[in-house]
Amino acid sequence: MEKFIRHSGVGVPLRRSNVDTDQIIPAVYLKRVTRTGFEDGLFAAWRGDETFVLNNPAFASGSVLVAGPDFGTGSSREHAVWALKDYGFKAVLSSRFADIFRGNSGKQGLLTGQLSQDDIELIWKALENAPGTEVTVDLDQRVVTCGEIVAPMQVDDYTRWRLMEGLDDIGLTLRHTDAIDDFETARPSHKPRTLV
Amino acid sequence: MGQTLAEKVWDAHVVRRAEGEPDLLYIDLHLVHEVTSPQAFDGLRLAGRPVRRPDLTLATEDHNTPTLDIDKPIADLTSRTQIETLRRNCAEFGVRIHSLGDVEQGIVHVVGPQLGLTQPGLTVVCGDSHTSTHGAFGALAFGIGTSEVEHVLATQTLPLRPFKTMAINVEGTLSPGVTAKDIILAVIAKIGTGGGQGYVLEYRGEAIRALSMEARMTICNMSIEAGARAGMIAPDETTFAYIDGRPHAPKGKEWDAALEYWRTLYTDDDAEFDVEVSIDADALEPFVTWGTNPGQGLPLSASVPDPESFADESDKAAARRALEYMALEAGTPLRDIAVDTVFIGSCTNGRIEDLRAAAAVVKGRKKADTVRVLVVPGSAKVRLQAEQEGLDKVFTEFGAEWRHAGCSMCLGMNPDQLAPGERSASTSNRNFEGRQGKGGRTHLVSPLVAAATGVRGTLSSPADLEPVG
Questions:
Q1: What is the pLDDT of residues A30-79, one digit of tens each?
Q2: Where in this chain does the record put each Aconitase/3-isopropylmalate dehydratase large subunit alpha/beta/alpha domain (chain B) (predicted)?
Q3: Which pairing describes strands B287-289 and B297-299: parallel, antiparallel, or unpaired?
Q4: What is the rounded distance in angstroms from the CA atom of residue B215 to the CA atom of residue B356?
Q5: What whole-number distance in Å separates Cα of residue A19 and Cα of residue B323?
Q6: Taking the CB of residue B103, how many other CB atoms lie within 10 A of it?
Q7: Testing the interface with B: which of A102, A160, A173 to mutate, by most B Cβ within 10 A?
Q8: Which residues of B contribute to the annotated binding site for [4Fe-4S] cluster?
Q9: Stretch B366-377: mean pLDDT
Q10: How many whole angstroms separate alpha carbon B2 and alpha carbon B268?
Q11: Burial environment of residue B69 by CB neighbours within 10 A (0 to 12, 13 to 18, 19 or more)
């Protein structure tokens, strides 16, 4: 996994709350068996609307998505994270994320930074007043800057460490194989098995 | 201080705990389907890793499978590729799979309980957010992403941060015509689609205790629609009776040992929840959604709300957008909304009791000419059971289409979809924009409301119907 320490890129104001993963990528794009190439499905239903923010050329090359509250609700599809990453997004900022989406993002190196809704509103205004403005997301300092705006960003310590080190979860867990072996030895025999 | 049910199950599965790190939790049962697993198996292959516990893993085909002509090759090539990839992966890694045409095939969340694999006190995961369904047995069950699927395949564990706990107390007695679906839609409308984020919900109280296992599954199934990853109900005699005798239920001495453990799985009297919410079952009515998220619901007797009536600016904006998408006018009585399609099925309401309830409403009636009615059993076994009871005849005489098992019209991945602009009354779980097909408009309802809507052609409850003459 690529390390994430600091990133600057065009900020994209997505003034919508409750953006569920069906909107991030509709189910019809989930039929692929590959792990890349999902960018065409990103916000597919909305991209047909010429007023949609990513259809504005100034925002099209965006890499920091600034979204409304409850981003990533609904289906557990990790394709939502792949689609955002494949499009070129490095970070999503919101005042509240759905749990599964946030977990999936951390595993793929997509930063989900939590900001206050007041700061989100300020950044939205700044980006809408000057489309193409860059946003800097500093994971090391846990700060987001956009022009004059300096906003504290919440990311938990463990996720921050893993992202900054670019560490893979499975590799980390396999360091503790002995503990897993011990746990399995003590498991009650009444627990079900799928193979008989 | 005592512990909540969720905390007891959590603590019994901690493989490793270290300061500043997530707990490493053991996973008892890993369910797999074709949509969220191909990239996970691919990851194992690339890293040269085996599946650690194929004997705790079960795969089924559901999201992409057609519900007609299941003996023919799947027409959609990408769907077919995804199904074939799952079959190949299961063969290569030694995972049991129930394929289309197999008697145990069906929606993953219907199949697990039906086989008796879902049991109290287990940790259950699946790359599917409706895994919360299995919490109805007092299991800690939650949806995961594909990276986590790979993680569980490789290690049978997951690193997880503890959840907070929320009690949903449902006291009182449900009125006739009011169901588990109405309870959960009312809960989501009350706490919001983000209200459960970071929590495990425990449904408690008299009205919950009175529910059958299948009704409890309907409630836990939609916990995710309130933002919660898991919902739980403490196991009781209803639970034990449901499991007893199923193919994977413990037998003999193992049953006794299991039962002894299961009886310890309840929230202690002196335990404290982080949050408590109360719902009055006596006051509940049939509930339907009017908007584009499952929290935008109201009693069927209400009218489409005026967006300006919401206090919160973002709720106002969301309501305005929802009414535009749904093509609804504020003030329209919900009962006046005409639908094109009625869908009865899904992991929320595709079990035998759901089909029995819907069949009892439509028996001896004819559907409205303006609607098509799709009845899709949640599993091949449910379909067979329904046919033994003659429910298929009741539905076909009503004018409904009787289909094979699968996720069907719950989501737009298989041939069963709404056309742009079409409107449905659906017993499924999500009314998101385009969920049932691009441009489709969804009203979430209970099986009883779905059936009555099929009769009248507008959103209705059985109480609105004339007696069969």
A1: 988 888 899 999 999 999 999 999 999 999 999 999 999 999 999 999 99
A2: 7-457
A3: antiparallel
A4: 13
A5: 16
A6: 11
A7: A173
A8: 347, 407, 410
A9: 98
A10: 5
A11: exposed
Count H helices and E strands in chain B, helices first: 16, 19
| Cβ atoms B383, B445 nearer than 8 A | no
Q: Do A78 and B129 touch (CB under 8 A)?
A: no
Beta carbons of B177 and A193 less than 8 angstroms apart: no
User: In 3D, which of B186, B173, B161 has the Cα closest to residue B277?
Assistant: B186
Is the pLDDT score of A1 beyond 90?
no
Task: Please spell the DSSP secondary structure of B224-290, one letter per residue.
Answer: GGGT-SEEE----HHHHHHHTTSTTS--HHHHHHHHHHHTT-S--TT---SEEEEEEGGG---EEE-
Nearest-CA neighbor of A74 among A115, A25, A111?
A: A25
For the A6-185 domain, the top CATH level (class) is: alpha beta
| A105-145 pLDDT per residue, tens | 998 899 999 999 999 999 999 999 999 999 999 999 999 99
Residue A88 forms contact with B (CB below 8 Å): no
The answer to whether B376 and B408 are in contact (CB under 8 A) is yes
| Domains of chain B (ranges, CATH numbers) | 5-262 (3.30.499.10), 288-464 (3.30.499.10)
> Are A105 and A111 in contact, with CB atoms under 8 Å apart?
yes
- Distances in whole angstroms, Cα of residue B33 to Cα of each of A13, A89, B146, B347, B465: 35, 28, 11, 13, 40
The pLDDT assigned to A36 comes to 87
Residue B266 near residue B156, CB atoms below 8 Å: no
Domain ranges of chain A: 6-185
Q: Is the dihedral of CA B229, B235, B239, B245 positive or negative?
A: positive
Test B197 with A99 for CB contact under 8 angstroms. Answer: yes
Which pLDDT does position B314 carry in this prediction? 86
Distance CA B33, CA B125 (A): 12
A77 with B434: Cβ contact below 8 A: no
Retrieve residue B459's tokens: 């959103």
Could you give the CA distance from residue A90 to residue A109 in angstroms, rounded to a whole number?
8
The H or E element containing residue B182 is: helix B180-191
In the predicted structure, residue A196 carries a pLDDT above the cut 80: no
Helices (H) and strands (E) in chain A, counts: 9, 7
Whether the CA torsion A85, A87, A92, A97 is positive or negative: it is negative
B237 phi, psi to nearest 5 deg: -60, -35
Helix (H) or strand (E) holding B200: strand B199-204
Nearest CA in chain A to B314: A17
**Nearest Cα to Cα of residue B444 among B193, B135, B142:** B193
Instruction: Answer whether B145 sits within 8 Å of A76, measured CB to CB.
Output: yes
Instruction: Give the pLDDT confidence score for residue B416 in this predicted structure.
Output: 96
Mean pLDDT over the full length of chain B: 97
Say what the pLDDT of residue A32 is: 87
Q: ipTM value of the model?
A: 0.93
Report residue B298 as tokens: 């109201």
Q: How many residues does this entry show for chain B?
A: 469
Q: What is the pLDDT of residues A136-177, one digit of tens each?
A: 999 999 999 999 999 999 999 999 999 999 888 898 999 999
**Partners of A1 in beta bridges:** none
